[in-house]
């Protein structure tokens, strides 16, 4: 399956677990299916999925190595391409200016708040509010995520994402106050209304990112989720506490954060330089004493 269909290892394990669970059920004499199969078909089921012949989970991170955070220049290039797309449509006086502007703001919001695609498309205009500790952000000081990733069969998790990138306030304010009222559907509060439905879907996010990725020459392995990777990486590089970043993105465990983080070589060099300077300064002080 991995060689022919390119299925992820985690998917293979899920299939194997399903087969093992089913066979454990039909092979259990308690349910009588073994005797029933032998009566009807002249044979009986046996377990074929064992630990010794199944794919094992041996690594903490099994994600594809090609998927990574965008560098800051790559991210800026991507956003510039989105803005240029709006200007090109406007210059040619073609339809689709509002949709292009919406798409540009949508991708910027995904990065500015570290959102998953489902969290992004499910946003309503009412999902933003004031942060009393950051009054300068006005009505966009916090983003209330209502459709976070569920786990263990639970309903979608809710969380509050504080605004940390001041430029995102101007971007959202321009969209919500100046343009959104002209493309919203009557009585609908969806932040990203579609031309035909109440809101855009995740496929639209994928398509917009793919178009801009091709235009900017980014690797085809990168997808919209890399904006979330970039958010986490850039906050860590900027010195934010890892626990704060973990709460911002809604990770239950701190170890998950390391999977998303791919700090740049410049950042690692800066950290190394600071550590060496402390060691040298300590050695000098001890020598003077």
TrEMBL record:
<dbReference type="InterPro" id="IPR011010">
    <property type="entry name" value="DNA_brk_join_enz"/>
</dbReference>
<feature type="domain" description="Tyr recombinase">
    <location>
        <begin position="65"/>
        <end position="273"/>
    </location>
</feature>
<keyword id="KW-0238">DNA-binding</keyword>
<dbReference type="Pfam" id="PF00589">
    <property type="entry name" value="Phage_integrase"/>
</dbReference>
<dbReference type="InterPro" id="IPR050090">
    <property type="entry name" value="Tyrosine_recombinase_XerCD"/>
</dbReference>
<dbReference type="InterPro" id="IPR013762">
    <property type="entry name" value="Integrase-like_cat_sf"/>
</dbReference>
<keyword id="KW-0233">DNA recombination</keyword>
<dbReference type="GO" id="GO:0003677">
    <property type="term" value="F:DNA binding"/>
</dbReference>
<protein>
    <submittedName>
        <fullName>Site-specific recombinase XerD</fullName>
    </submittedName>
</protein>
<comment type="similarity">
    <text>Belongs to the 'phage' integrase family.</text>
</comment>
<dbReference type="GO" id="GO:0015074">
    <property type="term" value="P:DNA integration"/>
</dbReference>
<dbReference type="GO" id="GO:0006310">
    <property type="term" value="P:DNA recombination"/>
</dbReference>
<dbReference type="InterPro" id="IPR002104">
    <property type="entry name" value="Integrase_catalytic"/>
</dbReference>
